[in-house]
Amino acid sequence: LDTLGLRDWARPGCLWLIEWPERAAGRLPPADLALDFSLGDGGHDIATRAHSRLGRTWLAQLEGEDRDPARGGGASREVS
């Protein structure tokens, strides 16, 4: 991980999406937000969990965009 230069990009409020973070246990900061992807009926399902105040803020913003008809959202969004 150190050779990737991630520390150079670490800024407050940045969102990093890390696949398999357990492989870097002890070398990453605690997660603010978790996204769990699974196969569902007719597509993929995404379950979200906030682990901090910042994570809750990101989720609230995503949910607000998802429900804004002007942005093409509805009550929920299916991902395929």
Structure, explained:
The protein is α+β, with helices and mostly antiparallel strands. It has a domain at 32-73. It has two helices and two strands; from the N terminus they run αββα. The chain has helices spanning 6-9, 53-67; strands at residues 33-40, 43-50. The chain has a two-stranded antiparallel ribbon. Strand 1 and strand 2 (43-50) form a beta hairpin. The longest helix has 15 residues, at 53-67. The protein is globular, with a radius of gyration of 15 Å. The N and C termini lie far apart (30 Å). Mean pLDDT is 77; it is low at 71-80.
Task: Give the fraction of residues assigned to helices.
Answer: 10-25%
Dominant shape: globular
Q: What is the overall pLDDT average?
A: 77
Strand order of the largest sheet: 1-2
TL;DR?
The chain is of the alpha+beta class and 80 residues long. The protein contains two helices and two strands.
Keywords:
disordered C terminus; alpha+beta; 2 strands; 2 helices; 80 residues; two-stranded antiparallel sheet
Layout: helices, strands, pairs:
Elements: H1 6-9, E1 33-40, E2 43-50, H2 53-67
Antiparallel strand pairs: 1-2
